Each structure stands twice: as C-alpha cells, then as structure tokens.
Amino acid sequence: MPLRSKLNHGIVLSPDGKTLYASTVDKVYAWSYDAIEGVVNDPNRTLVANMSNTGHTTRTLLLSNKKPGIIWVSRGSAANIDQDAARQETGHSQLRAFDIGDLGEN
Fold it and tell me: Domain named Pyrroloquinoline quinone-dependent pyranose dehydrogenase beta-propeller: which ranges (predicted)?
C-alpha cells in the first residue's frame, strides 16, 4: 500500500514553506515541498517511529512558533478507558515534543 494512503491526520507546513510534515498511525514523515509547483519531493524522511496502537490512531502535528525547530506530536489512547495511559513508558495519551534537528535521517 503506498504511503500516501496511510497518512491519517497530522499535516503541517514549515514556516518557510519548504518542508511538509505528515503522520501515519506509526510514524511522522518530512518531505521537501515546492510551493510553486505544488509538489512534494520523494524520498521522504522518517522523523519519529514506533507510535502505533490499536485505539485512537490519529497523530496531530504542530510546529512550535515559540521554539522554532520543535515539532509536537500527539498520540491518543488505546481506547476511551486506557489503563496503560497511567504509565508514561507506554506512550499512550501523550503529547511529545521533538527537536527536528536532532532527529537526523531515519
């Protein structure tokens, strides 16, 4: 299945308009973006991985205006009542910030 059919909610454009970020249930990707042509250029870059769960699967993305270079990623719970969300190490029901410059090529 092509990647584009797995993209599910999170999409954000960098402040300079040259990078497009999007998410699947499991990963956050980045593509270089040409606003004049209106196209993304492959290959993509995987920024964040290992976020899958069986419940709430959308991953909202936000680029910080206050701290440039930081991308926020939300990860929902496994269900409306998710006991695992009480344990931080599960990653359930969390909002996490990542420094894009530290993520490198994955």
Answer: 5-103
pLDDT confidence bin for 1, thresholds 50/70/90: very low
Residues linked to residue 34 through DSSP beta bridges, in sequence order: 39
Q: Output the pTM of the full model.
A: 0.79
* Residue the block writes with tokens 């701290």: 67
- What are the structure tokens assigned to 58, written together? 């959308």
Burial class (CB in 10 A: 0-12, 13-18, 19+), 23: buried
* pLDDT per residue as tens digits for the range 37-78: 988 887 889 998 887 766 666 778 999 989 999 999 887 766
> Hey, what are 15's tokens?
């402040």
Q: Residue 40's closest CA among 69, 72, 3, 68?
A: 3
CA–CA separation, 82 and 19 (whole Å): 34
